[in-house]
Specification:
- The chain is α+β, with helices and mostly antiparallel strands.
- The chain is 45% helix and 21% strand.
- It is built from 11 helices and 16 strands.
- The strands form 4 sheets. Strands 1, 2, 3, 5 and 6 form a 5-stranded antiparallel β-sheet that branches. A 4-stranded antiparallel β-sheet has the order 9-10-14-13, with no helix packed on it.
- A hairpin with a 5-residue loop joins strand 7 and strand 8.
- Helix 6 runs antiparallel to helix 7 and helix 8 runs antiparallel to helix 9.
- The radius of gyration is 49 Å and the shape is elongated.
- It starts with a helix and ends in a 32-residue tail after the last helix.
Length: 454
């Protein structure tokens, strides 16, 4: 028992070390990406050296190579200008660049040269050396102001024209990038002008446009469609895959659909009922992560009934959209069907009210089949309206009730009239039902004399 406890303790310790290693690698990768956005190669260098078999090793190498390329282009441009101001600008942009030591060494050489030149040259020469060390329009204008006819006045004017042309060309390229507002446009600008006037803004725009936005999944049967919006495609033109996808098994196939500029759909098939962590990778270290769970909830048909020329449905669970099919009267031939796309959700339930199904409301029984995109089926039979025979029986019954009530009322009236006649005096006319009154006979005034024959 003691030996088992020791083994369990060692196993827990090993799992803790592995988990911490994965956490450290993730933090190193996130740090490398953050440094890389500022053209600082140290983060990727650290990740590559410490995690040679890391999860993101290929992307780290690719991003590091891109930073080195931009670094080399910037250094070439600075060397062509060969002045202290540009060397200092290079150091500020690439503080840990490949050529930082060379830039500092060249600054020292130029400063030493200028110091010696100032002590040995005339004021005109000294002013010109100072202007070239700064290499700006204002510096050359200052020289021309102090020495309008100096030995280097023509050189100063030529320098000004070149700088103005360079500034105009850069501004034109920047305006084009702004007008296009694409990741590629800003990357081209930064590559062409690594120490340009708008470099920091270009970096900011690149970081913003590199984001990968993963929208809510749209479920289908055993598959999912995930909308993605980003300009940071992976540039895998050979396989026509705009992004790199991680988090899927070999049997879970996927394909891309381009829905327009920077809008894609990732269609994943053969999903299993389990949680997923999907990682979408683009260039420049851009990455989007989406957690979702593929789970088929039971399809429950809570109610289905006919109400005033409408079919009323309440459904729970399953996967939308749903499909409602119904058979012909007395059959199971589900030829008629309709897809239920517009729904009103109340809590966990969906309610539908469907008209114009061409059902005859004569009391016939219809079979209704309700299916969802996961393949679940629920069937129910209901009567639509009442039969014509039911209406006849109801009508006859109602008529008989009316006749019976009329007869009772008639006999009650006769009895009441009879009671009224018995209580009246004889001089008053006697009412016999509904006939006219008969007056009592009056005396004629003639006296009849009785004659006895015997």
């Amino acid at each position: 028992m003691k030996l088992i406890s020791i083994h369990l303790l060692l196993l827990c310790l090993l799992m803790s070390i592995v988990a911490n290693g994965q956490t450290d690698e993730k933090e190193a990768w996130l740090t490398a990406r953050e440094y890389g956005e500022n053209l600082d190669a140290r983060g990727y260098e650290y990740y590559i050296n410490n995690y040679p078999n890391g999860k993101n090793i290929d992307q780290a190498k690719e991003n590091l190579a891109a930073i080195y390329i931009v670094d080399g282009i910037a250094w070439t441009a600075v060397k062509e200008e060969d002045n202290i101001a540009n060397y200092n600008e290079y150091i500020s942009i690439f503080p840990y660049g490949l050529f930082v030591n060379d830039a500092r060494q060249r600054i020292r050489e130029l400063e030493s040269y200028y110091d010696n030149s100032y002590s040995n040259q005339n004021p005109d020469e000294e002013a010109w050396l100072e202007a070239t060390s700064l290499n700006t329009i204002s510096a050359y204008n200052n020289y021309l102001q102090n020495f309008p006819n100096g030995d280097y006045s023509e050189n100063a004017e030529e320098k000004i024209r070149k700088i103005q042309a360079k500034i105009a060309a850069e501004q034109n390229d920047w305006d084009t990038a702004i007008g296009t507002n694409t990741l590629t446009a800003f990357e081209e600008y930064r590559k062409k002008y690594p120490i340009g006037k708008h470099r920091k803004q270009a970096d900011s725009n690149i970081a913003s446009l590199s984001k990968i936005e993963i929208l809510e999944p749209k479920w289908e049967r055993n598959s999912v469609q995930i909308p993605i919006v980003s300009q940071a495609n992976y540039m895998d033109d050979s396989e026509h895959k705009p992004f790199k996808v991680e988090g899927l098994q070999d049997n879970e196939s996927f394909e891309w659909n381009n829905e327009g500029d920077f809008s894609y759909h990732l269609n994943i098939k053969n999903l299993e009922e389990k949680p997923y962590t999907l990682t979408i990778k683009g260039r420049n270290g851009s990455m989007g992560v989406k957690n979702f769970e593929y789970k088929i909830t039971p399809l429950i048909l809570d109610s289905l009934y006919y109400d005033n020329e409408k079919i009323m449905i309440t459904i729970q669970g399953g996967q939308i959209p749903y499909t409602l099919s119904w058979s012909k009267r007395g059959t199971r031939d589900f030829t008629e069907k309709i897809t239920l796309n517009s729904e009103v959700k109340i809590g966990d339930y969906f309610e539908y009210s469907i008209k114009n199904l061409n059902l005859k409301a004569d009391g016939s029984a219809y079979n209704f089949l309700f299916t969802d995109n996961s393949g679940q089926r629920v069937e129910k039979q209901i009567k639509v309206g009442e039969s014509s025979f039911s209406y006849i029986y109801v009508s006859i019954g109602f008529l008989m009730i009316l006749i019976f009530a009329g007869a009772i009322w008639f006999f009650m009236q006769r009895e009441q009239e009879a009671n009224t006649v018995s209580h009246k005096n004889e001089d008053k006319p006697v009412k016999l039902g509904y006939k006219s009154s008969i007056p009592k006979p009056k005396s004629s005034g003639i006296k009849i004399k009785k004659i006895d024959k015997y």
